[in-house]
Write a structure and sequence with these properties.
about 300 residues; alpha/beta; TIM Barrel; eight-stranded parallel β-barrel; 8 strands
């Protein structure tokens, strides 16, 4: 499949879904199914399993595979399934990527390797090796705030020449960087998904094709409505929805993700807010902020 064909597949709202845990830190499978059903009801384009929001560093390989397999069984085929399979060990990333595809993943989220600080040549080797090991497209995850490595638009564009890299999750939160990166890769047909809810709408104006969202754990249908309004040329409605949800978009990052969104989901009764260490529940002050922003968002959306 050509990159131009891949580009059309990476559009709209993709939910970076949380992983629910019981009090004993095991995966809460009934809550997992409820979360997936909410995404299906909201009409999202895709679900991203075991990404940052899914607390991937604390999940075992077997847990990641089980999450992918269960998600594929619950979600309709119309909702694409992306699995986080990247890491800072190329050989292990290849192994996990193959297992995720076998479990039902349609595509893979592969982060730039944290901690190792590979050179551009090392990055190219890493992504090429993974891409050649599987038959599904890769979404390159650029998140310097977590990896400590900010790529230049030129280096990012060079990586996008690798066959199999069809998409970039761009999570710098920097719209000027996004503009330059899109312009560098435009002729290659690489799709760009915003990695931050707050840059979703402005990113569409710059040429991005969608978002990998934290907020859509809570408001999947409303974010889909915003994208649909934009696609239909109703800029006024899209901006109204963005402005209604903007305070909560910001509040969801008052502490390290996914603590805040798990608090909100616990308040709505979907699941509890248990996190695996080293993450901890949000503070009382953050909880109060989140509750206030949630109430304001609900009021603005009605």
């Amino acid at each position: 499949m050509s990159k131009n064909n891949f580009e059309s597949e990476f559009r709209g709202v993709w939910t970076a879904i949380v992983t629910p845990f019981k009090e004993d830190n095991s995966i809460d499978w009934p809550a997992w199914e409820r979360l997936l059903q909410l995404q299906a009801a909201g009409g999202v384009s895709g679900v991203v399993v075991s990404g940052t929001t899914g607390e991937s560093p604390t999940l075992s390989i077997q847990e990641k595979i089980s999450l992918v397999r269960k998600a594929r069984a619950v979600l309709p085929k119309s909702i694409r399934l992306m699995a986080g399979s990247g890491g800072n060990n190329t050989e292990q990333s290849v192994e996990l990527s193959r297992l995720c595809v076998d479990a039902g993943a349609d595509c893979l989220l592969v982060v730039t390797p944290p901690y190792n600080k590979p050179s551009p040549d090392g990055l190219k080797l890493h992504f090429t090796t993974i891409a050649e090991s599987v038959s599904v497209p890769l979404c390159l995850y650029h998140v310097p705030g977590r990896t400590g490595q900010l790529l230049s638009p030129d280096v990012l564009a060079s990586l996008c020449t690798i066959k199999g890299i069809a998409c970039v999750k761009e999570a710098t939160g920097d719209l000027s960087f996004l503009t330059r990166a899109i312009n560098k890769t435009r002729h290659r047909g690489t799709a760009f998904l915003s990695g931050d809810d707050i840059t979703f709408l402005p990113g569409l104006a710059l040429g991005a094709t969608g978002v990998i969202s934290v907020l859509s754990n809570v408001f999947p249908g409303e974010l889909v409505q915003m994208f649909t309004a934009w696609q239909a040329g109703d800029r006024t409605r899209a901006l109204e929805l963005h402005n209604a949800m903007q305070p909560l978009m910001d509040a969801l990052f008052c502490e390290s993700n996914p603590g805040p969104v798990k608090h909100i989901l616990a308040q709505t009764g979907v699941m509890n807010q248990n996190l695996r260490g080293p993450l901890a529940p949000v503070t009382a002050a953050s909880a109060a902020l989140l509750d206030a922003c949630m109430a304001a968002t609900r009021a603005a959306l009605t």
